[in-house]
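Request: Give me one sample?
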Amino acid sequence: MRRALAVTAVAGAAWATRRALKRRIGHSPLWPLPALETPVSGHSPRRALRALIVSRTEPARGVLHLTLESPDLPAWTPGAHVDVTLPSGLVRQYSLCGDPADTGRYTIAIRLIEDGRGGSREAHAQLAEGAELEVRPPRNRFELVPAASYVFVAGGIGITPILPMLRAATAAGADWTLLYGGRSRASMPFLADLAPYGERVSVLAEDETGRPDLARVAGAGPGTLVYCCGPEPLMRAVTAAAPDPAAVHLERFAPAAEPGPLRAFTVELSRSGRVVEVAAGESALAAVRRELPDIPYSCEQGFCGTCQHRVLTGAVDHRDELLTDRERADSMLLCVSRAKGDRLVLDL
């Protein structure tokens, strides 16, 4: 009897240990390192979702429009984007351009960039109707702030996060106008979706009218918010034209120009005490990977959050387009951000 009780106790303890270990691993993408309060990707790895591609169309030359469906897709708000894992494992970020009220369905649009890093080429070549995609829950750093009036400016594929904003602004009874520019009408997606808005929308094809006239931005009155998404030169021009730069909200599809020269600095890995030198011409991620080659990373442009890690000591020169102010208080993205001084200590 005692032997049976002992065996039962040992088996129960082993089961409890395995369960606890499984839970511990699940909560830390970097097991056996301690879990961060906010996971490195910004979301629990167990929240990766599978969605079915139910429609594939080309609303303009070089633009792929996908509709994804799943009963597990979380709610979202205008301006949100999702991380999409491509078949090769590349992770790319795309704005949601559908209707937030259409639950269980996401729509995204992908511009083909022939000389890009390969994500858009893979998407155009391999993402077919009937296939499954892995997506992460939406994040939003381009929230539509309630206002009485707006000026929206979109350049090319930058129309994608603006589309749901137009629906929301219209439903709220706000006064708004849209300047939508592109190289040619043939390259500008969703023109048919914009047609019902009539004179509120100005379509400015460069081969017809030249560069867009930003007089509406310059004439924005007090309380009018300006939302712009598109190429960096367009966003710089919009910011310069706006009477109140604080009223301008921007969404980038590529990192902003680096502010100032890059300086060398050192990074201490607190858990081992090892110190790595980060040269002026390399990223903190590249330097840390010399010591920790298995450290996770993905986009290397400051968008996906995979390389987010806690900073214990030192001021950070944040150069990402992802982290909130609260997250920036004690963490950084190693792929793009750097030290403001000579040294950082990371919880690695």
